[in-house]
Amino acid sequence: MLSKKMQDALNKQLRAEFYSGYLYLSMSACADSLGYQGVANWLKIQSLEEFAHADKFFNYISERGGRVLLAQISEPPQQWDDIPAIFDAVLEHEQKVTSMINELFEVAIEERDHAAKIFLQWFVEEQVEEENTVGAIIDRIKLAGNHPGSMLMMDKELGQRVFTPPAE
Length: 168
Ligand code: FEO
Known about the structure:
By secondary structure, the protein is mostly helical. Helices cover 76% and strands 0% of the residues. The structure holds MU-OXO-diiron (FEO).
């Protein structure tokens, strides 16, 4: 059984994952409007991953005999100036999510909830990967500089990303 504090903290993160999905979907729409369909695809897949993260929290709360409590999801920003601005915002957001996951892990430690710590381990590792992937894209954007050819090549590459549901 989950403690009230642990349940509240897991529900808060569930909602944050939905917001992340919502934010990346908004970025995807913006990238599409800027003419970068590959980037739009990459961000759409990213949003699906976030919804899958939310689903992991949903299932876990229920599995532990807790109660899922949904709430309003804030409106995300709608517009970014260009593709570099979008990816800078993705990295900034993922860094924020990393600190949220770390805080959640701290709650599991305080509550002496060893099962929750094991569950959250997956997210701790996921955040390392998320920040690393986005950081690598930002490095490539910097290398591409103002060369439209390089940006278009990258767009084509990001367009090939497909959704793979996260492992249980
Ligand atoms: Fe759910 Fe991008 O972390």
